[in-house]
Every structure is written in C-alpha cells, then in structure tokens.
Amino acid sequence: MSNHGHHHKKPRKKNFISKILGRLRGKRSDKNYHRTEFPGINLPKNFDPVQWKDQSRHAQRPSELVTEEPAGDIFGTNQQIPAIREQGLKDKPKRIPKKKKNAIREAYKLYLQKREIRKEHRAKEQLKRHHRRKAEAERRKRDSGPGLAKTLFSSGEAGAEAGQEKAIPWYSRKHPAFRNLTITLNSTMIFITTYILTYLFYWLTCMLVASFYGLDSTLFFYDLQFNDHSPLWNRLNILVVTGVPPFLCLGLALFLIQVVFKVNRFAGLQKLFILWSAYHLFNHFFGAFPSGIVTDEGFGYVAAWLYLNTAFKFMFSLISLFILGIIGYFTTKHVLETSDSLNRIRGDHRLSFILYQMALPWFIGTVVMLILRAPKNFDYPYETLMFFSMAFLVFPAFFNEKVKPELNLLKSKRKRRINFGYITLTLLLLLFLRLVLDIGLHFIIEINISISPANV
After folding, report:
1. What is the pTM of this model?
2. Residues in Cβ contact with 192 at an 8 Å cutoff, skipping those fewer than 6 apart
3. Residue 321 above 80 pLDDT?
C-alpha cells in the first residue's frame, strides 16, 4: 500500500500548553489526516463521502470481488472499501431518537386508566351482589313457610291432619286446638304449683335461719315479716338470714337441671315439672337481686349491708338479668325434651311448641298469681317483680334454633289428655296460700339444752 498516497507517519506529540498557544495564534493543526473506522486505513483530508457513495453504487458487491486482480487505487477499479462501508451502513439499524416524555403527564394518564378499571370492577361487583341478593330473596320467599303469627299459632301437625281440621270437632283429642289447649293448661298448672313450692321453700328457709338467732317472723301470702325493732338484729345475722335462702335456691336449681333432669326415667310432664322448678329457683337468686335492689327487701338487704354503692348495685343487677337470659338460651334443649312427641318440635312446629309450653303458661300463671296477691302486689313488690324477671328465662328459647333434643319416647305417654292430678294439686296450694297464709304462719324453733348430774 505504498502507492496510494496515504501517510502513516506518526505525528509529533505536543504538550498541552503548546496546543493552547497555537490555537490562540490561529495556527492550524499539523494533523492533516484523519482515521476511518477501518483499522490501518487513512483517508486524505479532502476526501468527499458523497463521491464515494456514488461510486459504490456501481461497484461490485463484496461477494463478487475478485481477489486476484492487481492492487490498484482504492478509489479506482475495484472499489472494495467503499462497497464494504456502504454494505455496513445498510445493515446497521437506524437509531430512532427518543422523544422526551413528560413524567407527570404519563403518570396522570396511568392513574386515570387505573381508576377507570377500578370503577368497572366495582360496578361489576355491585351488579353481582345485586343479582345474588335478588336470587337469595326469591329463594327465601319460595322456601319460606307461613308467617310468624301463623307459625306460632299453627297446629303443629302434619298436612293430612290439618286438612281434616274442619271435619274433626274441636273437643276431640285429635283436633289441633285440643292438643294446644292441653299443652298450655298442663304447663300452666305446673308453673303455678312449682312457684308456690319455691315460694314456700325460700321463705321457710329464711324463717328457719332466723329462728336460730331467736328472731320471730310471720309468713304471709305476699311477704315474710320480721320484728324489725328487735335488739337481736346485727349486721352478721342480717346477711345470713337474707343471704342463705337465695344461695340454697341456686344450689338446688343446679342440682335439678344438671342431675335430676337427665335421669332417663323422667319424661313428659315430669321433666316439665323439674324444669319449671329449676327456673323458679334460678329466678329466686338472679331475679331476686335486682328486685331486692329496687325494693330494698329480701336479697337486697345483702347488697345494702355490704355497703355497695349505687353503681355496683346497678351493674350487678344487669349482670344477674343477663345470666338469666343465658340460662334460658342454653336450656332450650331441656324445654324441647319436655315434649312427648317428636313431630311437635320439628321445623316450624318448634316455635309454636315453645309458645304453648312456656310463654303462654308464664303469662297466664303470672296473671293468676297477681290476682291472688291482690291488693298487696305493690305494697310488697319484691315477689311481684320476680314474676317479670322470669321472662328473661322464657323468651330466649325462641332464638336458639341449633339445639337437638333427645326424647325418651318409650317413657312418654302419647295420649293427649289434661292432667287432673296437677289441677287438683294446684288448687290445693292456691287455697293454702290465699286462705291459710292470709292469717299468717308464725314459725320459731327453740332449742333448750340442760346438763345436770343424775339423781339430783
């Protein structure tokens, strides 16, 4: 490559200061040659690339180059180097200049797009929920039975028996009305009987404890009265006399509901008698506390002589009523087990059974006892208020739908009849309560112990 005129001499190095001074004086650089992208090839200073491009169009492709031709001028016949350069320029992808993006604008556009997507998603979810609620309402409407009033006062029998209701006289044992009347009447008699027995147990226990301290008391059909001006009274015996009977009622109630009720030999009305007794005993502990707080009688003396302030009295009263509701809710299984028929406590018949077995007897029995205690109901309201606290035991059973009772159908009697034995017992107790205790029952125990030598 000695005849192509390229200069390969190594330029003389100049220091940095000389270069600056030369440029200030306007001297041109001694470097008259510039290097191409190809190694070992230097092009003249006056080289025109446009001329190379025109010449390369008529030049042969690299694949058509003849290697045996004599070396000539690089810009002459062969035109190898310009063709190679042109081929490289064509193969090299062009750079597309990137547009400068506004980051804030792009972020805002992205936010708007995401917001639209979220709106569409929420609209779809709302539409799904709407269709789901509509379908659920239609299903409940389709599957729902009769209304609440019709359910509570329904006969509780199968459809065949309901269809024959018009043909059966109402006084017949096969008529649903007779069945409901039987359930309500028997349960009402047991409610009144167990209340009177609980009333006597509570106040006779109180009289017995007071007699050990030599305190006289008289039991009436409406209350127990002491000689309040006796010098024998002190803080200790007041707490003992008024506190022992409620705790004995609580212990006996737990024994009845946890032990006696679960005995297999009891069924039907026998279990109902045990259940009402336990309810009255529970009420004479948890119901007696708020009643005593309000009236300053009975169990309320315990809170008064313990010097509890008003806030604690109010709090413990609410807790007592809440516990009554809890007991009524969790004893729903015991209520259903008092039935003598499995069909009466199935499905929608369960509510009507609880109504006739528990709610109506409580209401009727309360009215009867309030009439019996007249006109002393509001003069001595301690026992009167406990009739109403009994509602916290009765009504929670309507809301417990998950219990599964275990009926002893072998022991229960399927024959529907009014139990005249309970009616007789109830009438006798009512007469005793109203006639005998109207005069008053005085009860005191005196124990005389004397020790002396024999033959003296």
Report:
1. 0.63
2. 365, 368, 369, 426, 429, 430
3. yes
